[in-house]
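Checklist before submission:
- one chain only
- standard amino acids only
- sequence pasted in full

Submission:
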Amino acid sequence: MIRLILRLILIFMIIDLLFMGPTDYKFIQPSDKIDKIEYITFVNKNKHIVFNEIPSDQISTFIKDLKNVECNKIYTDPASLFPNAMAFKITYKNGDYEIISDYGSGYYQDGWYKNTGDYAFDDEQFNELIEKYTDILIRK
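Returned file contents:
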């Protein structure tokens, strides 16, 4: 019995090493299709409170900075956006959008909204990104 338990633990550790860890965040559309990026509080899929908009001349720099924030793919229960989550909303020229917080994401694409994502960001690095592009200081 103990051998079985140890084997299961070993299998789960191997799976964790193979499938978890740093990855690149996959945007729902190419960055040249971005219309605007806003810093928001997520209320629900139909309502967001906008704090500020990132100037259009800083969008490409923001995307590069976001890509440098450590990101992990989640292969268990998807991370969800919760009410009052502080997030970035990326709106595309066709009206689709995605909302990215440090631990969860959601997107609206082709008339459908999905409030779960498969990515989680390093919260410290994500908070530094918030502070860089807003007037909001994040302290933990």
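Reviewer check: Strands lie at 34-44, 47-54, 71-73, 79-80, 85-92, 97-101, 104-109, 112-114, 116-117, 119-121.
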